[in-house]
Design goal:
Layout (H helix, E strand, L loop, with lengths): L14 H7 L6 E4 L6 H5 L7 E5 L3 H12 L1 H10 L5 H11 L7 H13 L2 H15 L4 H13 L19 H10 L3 E4 L3 H7 L5 E5 L17 H10 L5 E7 L2 H6 L4 E8 L9 E8 L3 H4 L16 E5 L9
Parallel strand pairs: 1-2, 1-4, 2-3, 4-5
Antiparallel strand pairs: 5-7, 6-7, 6-8
The protein binds S-adenosylmethionine.
Length: 319
């Protein structure tokens, strides 16, 4: 398992199901809400398939960019400050919040872009502003990496009082760098990346912030974005797969799709045996496209069971 950082909502426990439900033939794979990159880094894809990682969080994008393209500089920067004291953690947080090194003009421009334009346009303008004034920044990537690694549960907000020598992760950074060699990295809002890749042979994998858990991330995901995501996906010419928490709102929203139900151990709960209910939604019938799945649609067993719980009247994607 290749891993760069721990991340809330990481798909490590569900990779086996995502892999099984993929269609067999396609030319491009887009990880629309890439997060830690776990899906991009670990899925097995057809030979010569172009892979795109995307996340709107600029710090995540910058970390992946520097891991891929500035590996030596990043590991050198991380090696300079190997202690994980609270002082280091606080300094790293100050740096990221730009309290000390801040660029006030940039912050004002980014805030204005949000007020003056609608979301996809504001995102495009922010991307250009960030590209112009914050070139891929190794210092920032190293600070961000430390903040995640030194924090409790990798959430970046509470200092974890546990010993952590950052140098133990260097081999992972090099391995991830090699894996990212041919992966295109993007830093866009989901709507613009989906529209940009609207082709019949493209698979979009979407792992958005979950319903009623939208505030777990630094980038804003208003509740209305679930509908915005649905509306842009439904007209996608290729294949799509979406991961969500299993709840009535999502079942209703995606009723024109196939819905698979699965459970995973709930790591946030102290109750023994507690499980978290998830679903994987597709616009195609995986029983036709994914050869390993039986006619009934269910696969796996015991704690790795995946059940087909909803079949639409007419599949959106048939070839
Ligand atoms: C559930 S996490 C993805 C986890 C990822 N699959 C993994 O395995 O680590 C959701 C991600 O969506 C990103 N995000 C939130 N709003 C977004 C938007 N409008 N466009 C693109 N990415 C967004 C967040 O930064 C967060 O990393």
């Amino acid at each position: 398992m290749r891993k760069l950082i721990p991340w809330v909502g990481s798909k490590t426990p569900l990779l086996w199901a995502i892999q099984s439900l993929l269609p067999v033939h396609f030319r491009k794979f887009v990880d629309v809400f890439g997060g830690s990159g776990t899906v991009t880094l670990n899925l097995q894809l057809p030979k010569n398939c172009l892979q795109i990682y995307n996340d709107l969080d600029h710090d995540l994008y910058n970390l992946l960019y520097c891991t891929k393209n500035k590996t030596l500089a990043l590991t050198r920067e991380l090696g300079f400050l190997p202690d994980n004291s609270r002082d280091t953690f606080d300094e790293v947080c100050r740096f990221l919040k730009m309290e000390e090194y801040g660029d006030r003009d940039l912050e004002e421009e980014l805030a204005l872009a949000k007020v003056l334009f609608d979301k996809p346009q504001a995102e495009e303008i922010s991307r250009l502003l960030l590209q112009r004034s914050v070139p891929p920044d190794v210092r920032r990537a190293a600070a961000y990496y430390k903040m995640i690694r030194y924090s409790f549960n990798g959430q970046g907000n509470n200092y974890a009082v546990a010993s952590c020598d950052i140098r133990q992760f260097f081999h992972q950074i090099w391995e991830v760098s090699r894996r990212l060699k041919d992966v295109v990295l993007e830093n866009r809002d989901f709507e613009s990346i989906i529209k940009k890749n609207n082709e019949p042979q493209t698979v979009l994998y979407c792992d958005p912030p979950y319903y009623k858990a939208e505030r777990c991330y630094d980038v804003e995901f208003p509740r209305s974005d679930h509908q915005r995501l649905h509306d842009v996906l439904i007209v996608h010419e290729g294949f799509f797969m979406v991961s969500y928490n299993y709840c009535d709102f999502i079942k209703e929203l995606y009723k024109e799709c196939f819905i698979y139900y699965l459970e995973r151990p709930n790591s946030q709960s102290r109750k023994k045996g507690s499980v978290y209910e998830e679903c994987i939604i597709t616009n195609y019938d995986p029983r036709v496209f994914a050869r390993q799945i039986t006619m009934y649609g269910d696969f796996g067993r015991d704690d790795r069971a995946c059940k087909l719980v909803h079949i639409p009247d007419h599949p959106l994607k048939v070839e």
